[in-house]
Amino acid sequence: MSVLLPSRRDFLVFSSICSFASICKGGAISDISKAALGGQVTNTDSVFNIVAAPDSVQLGPQGHQPTAMWCFNGSYPGPSLRVRRGDEVQVKFINLLPEPSSIHWHGIRLLNAMDGVPGLTQPPVDPGESFVYKFVCKDAGTFWYHPHLNSSEQLGRGLIGSLIVEDDTETEVDHDLIWLLSDLRLDQKGQIHESFGSIHDQAHAGRLGNVVFINGSLSDSWSVPYGGRIRLRLINGSNARLFRLRLNGPSVNQVAIDGHPVPPRVIREADVLAPGQRIDLIFDLHTAEELEIEDHGNPDRAYFLAKIGIAKPSIGRGQWYGQNLKPLPANDIPQFQITEIPRLREIPLVLSGGAMSRQMSPQSVWQMNGRAPTMGHGPDHFGREPLFSISLNESVVLKLINQSAWFHPMHLHGVVFHELLGSDSLGPARDTLLLAPGQQKRVVLKAEFLGDWMVHCHILEHQHSGLMGYFRVSA
Ligand code: C2O
Ligand code: CU
Fold this sequence. Notes:
Bound molecules: CU-O-CU linkage, copper (II) ion
CATH superfamily of the largest domain: Cupredoxins -  blue copper proteins
Number of helices: 6
Distance between the termini: 56 Å
Oligomer: single chain
């Protein structure tokens, strides 16, 4: 039980940020609906303005010094955008940061020009400039957004937000909650630690934060206004942290991965949630029940993340759904016949470098297929050949080979893919797949959209220092 585990504050805050932590011992209860809905924007015509700018955020309780961050619309995380499947979303992005930026819509299958990758799909949005993103959300599910320039620093200073695409038919739940999980590296004063660009972070496990947040909050006690069926959408928006969530309490079904529905399955421990990935859970909470969530991402430093209970007194009443949990309605994504797979072209993608490898040097921390991109994210970054090319509507097998001693959540833009499990089954549709040290995985995908698409590690310090490139889909 979680009683044996240290709390998030004891572990992450106390150990490194004493002054910050001593004020954080309050144990305030967050009303989930308030916290989740407070920063939420639903807009019937799906037109949004998003401004990226420096701001200060009250990360600790009142009375503590606010943290200087970079924010979307003044909050951490940025506004949670909610749209409906099939909507045309229009976002005017205004950059008031001291450096160029962009927004990438992680997991959304859209036209290349709207993918938000400066130097590859659009020019950088310079300070004081704006860019209008327009795209149709074909898939319902849990997605998110973030800049795609100097990502380690821009996300590490706070630029993340969730994008929820609702299905046209309501999924039957009483509460639809989003937990955008993240961590920040803070200094003794609770300010963003300025250690960006650290070669040590790049060559090891990335920029791990020392404080873990749920929707920007430190609260470890959350409540819904009344019992009933709850959908919990988990998004890992941290630079480098791997979460492995253990669930104690009512039985919990995993219903979607990376936004796409999977057959409901009761789980006690969720799959590792690596940076960029999402998992949707559904569970029922009845009187006096609580779901307790622990993070065993680092088995030696497991901690109690948070619990979800029912507000006392509760206001209102949930429905009774019985034991039946219907799968979420499927998205219209490419389907594969297992028999066609042996005939597909196989493309290798070798990841090498990092600490403890012979390939590593300060000029080239990581390589993809032996090639080290130039450091940094200038538009010249892409003035080179794609890692591989695919014809439009061609299906291929991509063989990801991790020759390094480190974990890499590999993310592909513009496609969803399935892992090949053994010779006769396919894993769930994903956009980000975790490779353990030394591991190889084969995935199958179909190129549906023309253009140049990123493929990179979502540990942003690895991405920055070489684990990034692009593939070309041509007619
Ligand atoms: Cu979440 Cu290339 O990004
Ligand atoms: Cu990596």
